[in-house]
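Hey, I'm writing a tutorial for new members on how sequence and structure tokens pair up, and I'd like a real worked example in the thread rather than a made-up one. If someone can provide the structure for the chain below, I'll link this post from the tutorial.
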Amino acid sequence: MDNVEKIKNRLDIVDVVGSYIKLEKTGLNFKACCPFHNEKTPSFFVSPTRGTYKCFGCGEGGDIFSFVEKFEGVDFKGALKILAEKAGIELEKEDPKKANERKRIYDVLEKATVYFEKNLKENLSALAYLEQRGINNQTIEKFRLGFAKPNWQDLYNFLKKEKYTDFEIDKAGLIKKKNEKSGFYDRFRERIIFPLFDNSNQVIAFSGRYFGRGGEQEGTIAKYLNSPETILFDKSSILHGYNFAKTKIRKRDFSILVEGQMDLLMCHQNGYDNAVASSGTALSRRHIDLLKKLSRRLVIAFDGDKAGFSSACRATKIALSEGMEVRLMEIPNGLDPAEFILQDKLGWQKALKEGKHIVEFYLNKLVFEVKGASNKVVDDKIKRKLGKAVQEEVLPFVILIESEIEKANFVEKIANQLEVPDKVIWEELAKIKKIAFSMTRQSEEEGFDRKKSFVKKLSLKKDKKNRKQIILRQLAGLYWWQKDIKQPIFDFQLLRKNIKKNIGNDIFKKIEKLPEKIKDEIVFEVEILYGDVENIEEKIIELLKNLEIELLNEKIKKVVFEQKQAEKEGNSRLALKKLEMYNQLSKQKSQLCN
């Protein structure tokens, strides 16, 4: 048994969490006001049977280790040490074999870094390119930039001479196996190399920019290539430059998020050393967690084109849903942050200082596109177009804002731009919430709706969930909740049969193959929602009925579309057939609704 399992067996999550915050028993679980965001009504739940916690307000969740990491602001090793002391356990040293393997891989990566650095010093073209992009020698040395030669086995041969095995070099992510042949070839060739570091400033991976034939991307050759995930490198939890930026982020109380390696280097070189980069990796909640531990304030500085703005919107949604205060920098169209800093340092400084909230940024963008720079008076048709764009693209961000005061401020600004009363915007927000978060019909049991409101907030994710998806999520949670219990509180086999009957075998197979992490999350949701509900069978019947209704709605929508298409094409026979199908489906829906 390893140290983690020993600690989990020795410590009860209620005791651990209860040593930091006051918990109140509620049924099988415990609740409290969340320690990770401000709230008046408790939405933070601890499950002693599962050994997990979950806040249905901000989405934080995990086990005793993640709780201590978050509350104490430490990494996993720090949490391990704190909890080992609480448990009275002397930490065992890592298995010597595994420890040696990790050390050897660190050594391989360090040797490769030194080799790449030497290559760069000898490649005048690559050095000239970096100089042209504004990168000086101090930055090259600080970030340990290098160059991979175009030869297929250049690095491989070097590392073999250094007495490293194929296994070690491969595990470090530096080589790839030849197709249908024995032997290996270098993963990185003809590229400027950017090392990635862990919190201890050790190299754990690389990112390489193609620099063949003048450095331009050709054919199918990717412009940037990153190391694969290894035992040292997990791309969903590593932000480039975080090792250099972490103390500055805490000191300045905000972080700057950029996309590219060059953007990161230019930021640090010019004194903005609280910058980190996603560098081609999709931003995850784990990335946001890293930043949130240091500061809740985030400035996003992505490329000033359409793709950059789309990426910034996705990143903002994640950050807002995690309770971050997010601002967007206005980068001139056609430039990336590195080019902006190089061409206009004062302009960059001004843009950083005047960074706008995504709602204000997006609203101004849409207004400019419709009204132009003069903010001219427009006709009703254009007003409606602007209103629809704001409804679809801006209001979803307003929903994610935690502060009611800030939310009200933006409602007023939006109402003024659209020349409508504030009340209209609040009504639209209510509609969006209803669509995104509605679940099942109102329950008559006291307290059920209050719990349900916590679960609704789980839909504050990157993608909106429609009513059908939310119902399916609950049904899947109910199924997994009781599946392995000897004496289930309801007939889960019957539930399985009914779910499968409604959604089909293919979709049901996806439910049965859910990843453990998602499975645990949805089970915890239904434990909180249904744990002390007496008439649970009635709830399940209601859920299944609502699922049938939603599936019928989808069929009706499709039939209506097909009937209109048939009419347009002059196919009266098909149009009549579709009308009959519509009547049949409507009748089925009416029977279910009564």
